[in-house]
Design a protein that fits this description.
The chain has 126 residues and is an alpha+beta fold. The chain has a domain of 79 residues: Immunoglobulin-like (Sandwich). The protein is built from one helix and six strands, in the order H-E-E-E-E-E-E. The strands form two sheets. The chain has a four-stranded antiparallel β-sheet, with no helix packed on it. Strand 2 and strand 3 form a beta hairpin. The structure holds calcium ion. Calcium ion binds next to loops. The site of calcium ion has 4 residues, from loops.
């Protein structure tokens, strides 16, 4: 009987731990919008977007699919980190340009905490 109760307490503890971790993962990410001017070459095929957490690189390509419009949304980034971006243009023959100028942005936490609950007020004497 005592063993069963311990099991239930453990289960409740694990459930709360899972909720806490899920909340942290959900609230601790943000997105950065990357935008640039259209290239004018008629044989332009797509763009590649590169990112680094270090100014000046080295950069890692972040787009999995070819980027066709001249903008990109980089989502699921951890908070409180500055990211440095460069973009390249690729033509139909597969020739890739050099890097664009670098631009950077910092993901900031814009999600406020939940309002406090369980509020109780009592008159204490008069
Ligand atoms: Ca654009």
């Amino acid at each position: 009987m005592k063993r069963k109760r311990l099991g239930i307490i453990l289960l409740i503890f694990i459930a709360f731990a899972v909720i806490l971790v899920a909340t942290l993962v959900w609230s601790a990410t943000g997105s950065i919008s990357v935008n640039w001017t259209d290239n004018t070459e008629p044989d332009l095929d797509h763009y590649n977007v590169y990112r680094s957490t270090v100014q000046g690189g080295p950069y890692v390509q972040v787009n999995v699919d070819n980027v066709s419009p001249s903008d990109f949304l980089d989502a699921g980034l951890p908070d409180s980190t500055t990211y440095y971006y460069v973009v390249t243009a690729v033509d139909l023959a597969g020739n890739e340009s050099g890097y664009s100028d670098e631009a950077f942005a910092t993901v900031t936490d814009l999600t406020p905490p939940a309002p406090p609950i369980g509020l109780i007020v009592n008159m204490i004497g008069n």
